[in-house]
Amino acid sequence: MACSTHLLYPAAARGHLRFQARPAAAASPSVRLGSGTSRRRALGLRVAASAEQGRRQVEVEYDLQAKFNKLADQIDQNAGITRLNLFSPCKINVFLRITGKRPDGFHDLASLFHVISLGDTIKFSLSPSKSKDRLSTNVAGVPVDESNLIIKALNLYRKKTGTDNFFWIHLDKKVPTGAGLGGGSSNAATALWAANQFSGCIASEKELQEWSGEIGSDIPFFFSQGAAYCTGRGEIVEDIRNPLPANLPMVLVKPPEACSTAEVYKTSQTDPLVLLKEITENGISQDVCVNDLEPPAFEVLPSLKRLKKRIIAANRGDYDAVFMSGSGSTIVGIGSPDPPAFVYDDDDYKDTFVSEACFLTRNENEWYREPISSKITSEEDLPPEVASVSD
Length: 391
Hints:
alpha+beta, four-stranded antiparallel beta sheet, chloroplast, disordered N terminus, Ribosomal Protein S5, domain 2, 10 helices, disordered C terminus, globular, EC 2.7.1.148, 27% helix, single chain
């Protein structure tokens, strides 16, 4: 991912320089401009025959803006970066099957993960300290384990590469915690990506993906292109060639309560490849958006079951599917960005998190970019609380 500073100049900086030349009486030293039509075009040089014999008109075009932008890019490349702002998107599980329990206590799963447009923003800057990272966040109450994932990711990168960069990090948190959206895992993946950019990309994306599995099962997914079939603990990632369309809207509805991941894992015998084939060939429907963690999650949190039922009952054909993401407690409605009216009208849901979203992917060797429509436009939208965590 290139980081550059462009020096912008008004249109007046772009102009033409014209001069006329007569053939010299004798040979003289000259600068070789090259020959051929393509070479003249590349140099912005046009030569036209004049009506006056023995005289040619030469027109040289120059563009100061392009010249200075190129120079700025070269300076940035040579100097390295000292600050970096990155979007850290979350994910949903379009379907999730639990296929067994492992000897290490984890569960094997098979799931279609897909990045969506809701996410956090993380600002990184190099710290003069060579002994610790410092992390601040815009909201109070972010779980320590989730915040520490960023620090763990940076420690992991230093351990794997031998680099000694430490950072000041500010986490602008928008993804709710305990939501089954992988917000903490995304933050850790983003931190690994950032550390690699500061170090001149000395590690490959594949290496970052493999290393990240050491600190979290969902983290490797974010080094996919944004849509992947994940198995094992979630760390075995297979990119999906045909991701779900970005123009397919959705709404996320998360009650204040969170589900305990450990309490909701069960096993299932359904073949997840059948679901994957159906989704990639025919799209999303209620029948294929199956989450094995819903029944146990609904036992742990009965209000979540009621929420899903009410959304389905209020659906007037807007949603193609309504389901829980991950281990909860977010309910996803695919097909419309609008939540049902009762979420706003019923006092039982006054503290419910609601957000529209869409599916998101990234290009190889580029990190995810926040869609313009979802960006915060005013500092007044930010929560006033500020918390700080240091390593």
